[in-house]
Amino acid sequence: MNYEILGDIAQVARLRLDRGDEVWASRGSLVSYTSAIDWQLRIPGGVGGAMRRSLSGEGISLLRVTAMRSGQVVALGANAPGRIREWDLDADGPVVTTRGAFLAAWGESVDISVTVARRAGAAFFGGAGLFLQRISGRGTALVHGSGDFEDRRLAEGESIVVSTGNLAAFAESVDYSIQGVGGVRKFLFSGEGLFMTRLTGPGRVLLQTLKRSYGSSGSRSG
To answer: CA-CA distance, 183 to 117, in Å (whole number)?
Structure first.
């Protein structure tokens, strides 16, 4: 499967599919498609995964896009200003995406599931929630970030502190925890809230320059 990412302010991914090619895509992401593209609503993991998906804020179902003939094209977008970045599941390992960051995935035995934040503090106070979406297997995932991306690769034991709402996606190997901003004045007047997210390597991290609110599920969930 070939694809290209187009645009500057609100990027779109244009995928070229051969007969039988299939793609998972987030709900509401279809921009356009050719006549021999078929798409259906599917629940990754079946009925057993429906409850966990609803708790993740990503919605119970995703789109399953299939090419009925070769040479078909589908364009996917996020309905929001921002950029799209490729995540190579073979090279970078499974990716954990925060709410609204997953756009599409395809490849051999690609699995889309919901994982639970490993630390209770991060789950309830880190901003991204208790349940996060996990994409694994052999293939490619596309991640959408609001604004631009800061693409970081953390070494073993290397840590960065991230403002709430700026975390788009991170490798499963990265430890995700929280820390307080320190002091009442910072909490009240900095605009950063009470806690910030600490990410510790090894692994890749995608940060978005515009904060995304995790208070609502957004237009692509449900």
So the answer is: 26
Distances (CA, A) of 9 to 81, 82, 123, 146, 206: 6, 6, 31, 10, 18
φ, ψ at 165 (rounded to 5°): 95, -15
Note the pTM of the prediction, 2 decimals: 0.85
Two tokens, residue 108: 């051999």
**DSSP alpha helix (H) spans, 76-119:** 89-92
Other CB atoms within a 10 A radius of the CB of residue 191 amount to 9
Structure tokens at 127: 């901003």
Distance (Å, whole) CA 145 – CA 216: 16
Burial 10-19 (b: 16+ CB within 10 A, else e): ebbbbbbbee
Q: Band the pLDDT of 216: cuts 50, 70, 90.
A: very low
CA–CA–CA angle 83, 214, 12 (5° rounding): 20
| Residue that wins the pLDDT comparison between 192 and 93 | 93
Give the 3-state secondary structure percentages of the chain, helix then strand then coil, rounded to 5: 10, 50, 40
Tens digits of residue pLDDT in 37-66:
999 999 887 666 666 676 666 678 899 999
d(CA 122, CA 159): 15
Distance between CA 186 and CA 213 in Å, rounded?
A: 20
What are the pLDDT digits (tens) for 110-119?
Answer: 999 888 766 5
For residues 37 and 70, give the distance between their C-alpha atoms in angstroms, rounded to a whole number.
Answer: 10
